[in-house]
Amino acid sequence: MKISRLLFISILSISFISCGISTDNDIDLDIPADYTFTRNGSSSVSFSGQTTRIKMATELVSAMMAFDTSTEESLLEMFRNETSQGGDADPFADAELNASTKSIKSKVAASADFYSANTTESAEIKADFEAWISAQVNEVFPNEDSLARPGVAGQIADGSSTRYVSAKGLEYNQLVAKGLIGALMTDQMLNNYLSVSVLDAGSNQQDNNSEVLVDGQNYTNMEHKWDEAYGYLFGASQDPANPLATLGDDNFLNKYLGRVVDNPLFSTVGVDVYNAFKTGRAAIVASEYDIRDERANIIRDRISAVIAIRAIYYLQAGKDALSGTEKDFGAAFHDLSEGYGFVYSLQFTRIPGTNTPFFTRSEVEGFLNDLMGDGENGLWDVTPQTLDDISASIAAKFNFNVEQAAS
Amino acid sequence: MRALTILFLLLSVLTVSCTETDLSGPSSNDFDRQAMLENWADNIIIPSYEAFSGHMATLHADAEAFTTTPNQTTLDQLRNSWETAYLSWQNVSQFEIGTAAQIRYRDNMNIYPVNTTELEKNIADGSYNLSLPAENDRQGFPALDYLLFGLSTNDGDILDYYTTHQNANGYKTYLLALTERMKGLTDTVLDSWETGYRDEFVQNSGNGANSSVDMMVNDYVFYYEKVLRAGKIGIPAGVFSGSPLPTHVEAYYNQELSKALALEAIDAAQAFFNGEYFDGNGSGESLKSYLDFLNTMKEGADLSNRINTQFESARSQANSLSSNFRVQINTDNSAMLSTYDQLQRNVVFLKVDMLQALNINVDYIDADGD
After folding, report:
1. Are A369 and A359 in contact (CB under 8 A)?
2. Sign of torsion over alpha carbons B325, A162, B365, A349
3. Predicted model pTM
4. 8 Å CB contact of A326 and B6
5. Kind and range of the H or E element at A345?
6. Which of B1, B7, B133 is opposite residue A156, by nearest beta carbon?
7. Contacts of B136 in chain A (CB under 8 A)
8. Is the peptide bond before B113 cis (omega within 30 degrees of 0)?
9. Is B365 on the interface with A (CB under 8 A)?
10. Is B363 on the interface with A (CB under 8 A)?
11. Could you tell me if A98 and A90 are in contact, meaning their C-beta atoms sit under 8 angstroms apart?
12. pLDDT tens per residue, range A268-301
C-alpha cells in the first residue's frame, strides 16, 4: 500500500474521531473479544424488537413489488401492523411478525431527542412513508405494463433488469427502503437508544450501578437500551456477536455499512462502529458513563457519515448514467431513487456532541426539491450540475469530498 | 464509473511495472484504427449477422411448419434449426452496439433462466407485450428451449401441448410470436449495419470515449466478463452465490447443448480478438495487431500471446466438461470452477492490461446489485 494512501487514510480516521478524545487508558474496562455479555452464565444481550422490525421492513419493501397480490391496504397494514381502524391485522407472511405487537410506523421518526417534543414533524415523516406506499399502488401498479416516459409511470430497462417508476422517475420502493434506514434504524440508534436522555432515564444509572435488573430479564434497563441500538445495525446478522464478517445480512443499514467499508478510503468504519458498541457496552457494565457517551458519539459520527457517503455515491452514479451520448434513464432512476432515500435520511443523522442532525428537515427538503425541480418531470429532467451541487453541499459538512464518497 | 476510474488509476500505477508500454516508439494514434473498424464491420460483424439472419429465417420458417402441422418430424426439424441458430447466435452476441444496444437485442434474445411461470401466464392470458423490459425472460432462445424441450419429459407429451391441449392454439401462437420477434429484431439490427451504421461506425475512428473503438472494446470486454465468463460458467457454477445453480445453465431444458454453446462463444471471442474473417479465409487488423503494434508486453511476453494462450487454456478446460452442464455441476462442479478460473485470467489481461495499453477507460460499472 502506498505511503501516501496510508497517510491519507490515517488522516481521515483521526479527523473522524470527535473532539472529546477519551483518556480511558487508565481505566481497566473488561472488553470481550466479541459482542458477548453475560450474567450468571446466560446472555444479557437482547434486541428481538429490532430484529422483528428489520424483518417487517424487509417484507414491506418486497411486498411493494408484488404487483399481483399487494393492495394499498395490505401494504399500509404492514407498515402499521394494524388495520386502518387500529384493530389487529395479519399482513405478513411470517406468522411471528403477525403475532408481534411491534410495528415499523411506531418507531419511524420517534426518537426521544428529536421527536418527543416535535410530534408534528414526526407525523409528517410517517405520512411521507404512507404517501410513497400508496403512490406505488395508485400510480405505478396500474402502469405495470406500460413503458415509462416523461410524465407517465411505467417500467424501464436498467441493463437486463426492469425498474418500475413513477411519472417523475422515482422508484417508491427505494424511497421507502432507503428512507427507513434513516427514519427507523438511524434515528432510533443515534437519537434514542444511544442518547443520554434514554440511557439515563429514570433510575437507570442507579439501577445499573447496583445491577437492578428489568423484571423477568437478565439485563439492566441501560444495558438493554444500548443493545437495542446495536440491534438496529446488527440484529439480522448471522452471528450478531461477530457481525463484521457478514455485512450485508440485511438490506438496510447493515448492508450499506458494508458498502462503505468496501471503499478502501473508509475501510475502518465497520470496525470503528463495532468496537465503539462493544466498548460502550463494557463501559455500561463497569458503570463508566463518560466512556459510554464518548463511544456513542463515535457511532454517531460514523453512521452519519455512512448515510452521507451513500447519498453522494448514488447521486454521482445517477449523474454518470446521464452523462453518456445516450442517457441511461433506467440506470439513473434506480441510482437516484436510492440517492433520494439516503438524502431523505440525512435529517436523522446526528452531529456528535450536539443535539442536531447534520441537515435539518428543511435543508433536506431543499435538496429533494432541487433534485426533482429541474423540469416538470422530476428525474427525467435533472441536470448533472444539480446532482453535483447537492453532492457538494452534503460533502461540505464532512471530512471527505464528493469524489472520495463516490468511488 | 467512479469506482473503476479510481481503481483503474491505482492499478495503472501499480501495473506500470508489469505491463510495459514503450514511452517512445509507436503510439496508439499512429495505429490505423479505421482499418481495424473496417475489418471488424466488413469481415466479421456483418458476415456474422448475415449468417445468423439466415439461420433465424430458417428457424422461423420451421416454426411456421411446426405450428401448422405439429408432429414428431416437424418438431425434430424445428429443434435442429433452433440448435443451429443458437450456435450461430454465439457469434453475434458480443456485438451489442449501435441499433442492437438501442433495442436491447441481447436481452430480448437470450436471457436465462426463462421464467416459466410468467411464460405460461402469457400463453394462458393470450395477451402480452414482448417489447417490455419485464418480458426479457419470457422470450428468445431460452423460451424456445422450454417450449421445445421443457414442457414435458417425453416428446409425445410435448407434442400434446400443440395438438390436444385445450389451449394448444395459445402455445402455437406464442411459439410463433417468439420466432417472429427474434427474426424481426435480427433483421432490424442487420439492416441498420447494411444501410448506414457501417459507415458511421467505421468513420468514428478517433480515440475518445465515444469513438467506435472505445465503445466496441468496452462492449467486447463486458461480453467476455459478464455474458461468457459469468453467464455461461460462473453463475451456474455458483461463483456468485452461496451454492451452484444448475438451473442457470444455457440450454437448460435441451441439456446437451450447453458445452457446445460455450465453446462456440469462446471461439467467436478469440476470433474477434485476432481479427479473423468470419468466413475463415484470413484475418485483418484487430485488437491483437493493435497490441502488437504498440509492442505491449506483459511480464516479458507479448500481451496478445498471453491472451491467445489463455483462450486456448479456457477452451481446453471447457472441452473437458460434459456436454450437459447440469450433469457436470451435479457430479463434479470443481471442473466448472476450473473453467471459470481459466476464463477469469483473460478478464485481467483484457480488462486491465489491454485497456490500459490501448488507452481506453472502462465505461461500465460493476453494479451494486441493489
Report:
1. no
2. negative
3. 0.88
4. no
5. helix A329-345
6. B133
7. 160, 162
8. yes
9. yes
10. yes
11. yes
12. 999 999 999 999 999 999 999 999 999 999 999 9
